[in-house]
Amino acid sequence: xxxxxxxxxxxxxxxxxxxxxxxxxxxxxxxxxxxxxxxxxxxxxxxxxxxxxxxxxxxxxxxxxxxxxxxxxxxxxxxxxxxxxxxxxxxxxxxxxxxxxxxxxxxxxxxxxxxxxxxxxxxxxxxxxxxxxxxxxxxxxxxxxxxxxxxxxxxxxxxxxxxxxxxxxxxxxxxxxxxxxxxxxxxxxxxxxx
Length: 194
Known about the structure:
Elements: H1 9-33, H2 35-69, H3 72-77, H4 80-93, E1 97-100, E2 111-114, E3 120-126, H5 134-147, E4 151-156, H6 162-171, E5 174-176, H7 178-191
Parallel strand pairs: 3-4, 4-5
Antiparallel strand pairs: 1-2, 2-3
């Protein structure tokens, strides 16, 4: 009974061929009958699409500029995904080539890329209201192995527990606490155009 509710793609194909044929024939007839109107419509569509693309680029640049100028107080108010995007923009501005990983199946890395020396880097971003424990270090260390990275970093807007610091030291994971993050943000902010 449930099978009757779902119409397969192959069953729709024979019905859609005549409709497609009619649309194509009508379009050709319209172009032949009204060439000036067709050109005008095409120009209108091209102009509209170009305007939308330019508008989107300006919106992306404005967001990037806002993120680059945001300090630790704004970061404290961001969501985890916004913090990840903020870090991606930050490191890109610093000359790194980084990209965000997918929300699931990231193997413990929120950002993956290359630093200025061309070394693969994995970054775990933790925008929390409490100190960060060993789990973040374990996750980024796993990502370091999975991605074959030479450098692994956990970055937070807070601080790390002693256990996290000890594990990071033994695993060769770099920890950026609130103070280290603010220093890096300030370094970039000083070089932004007014």
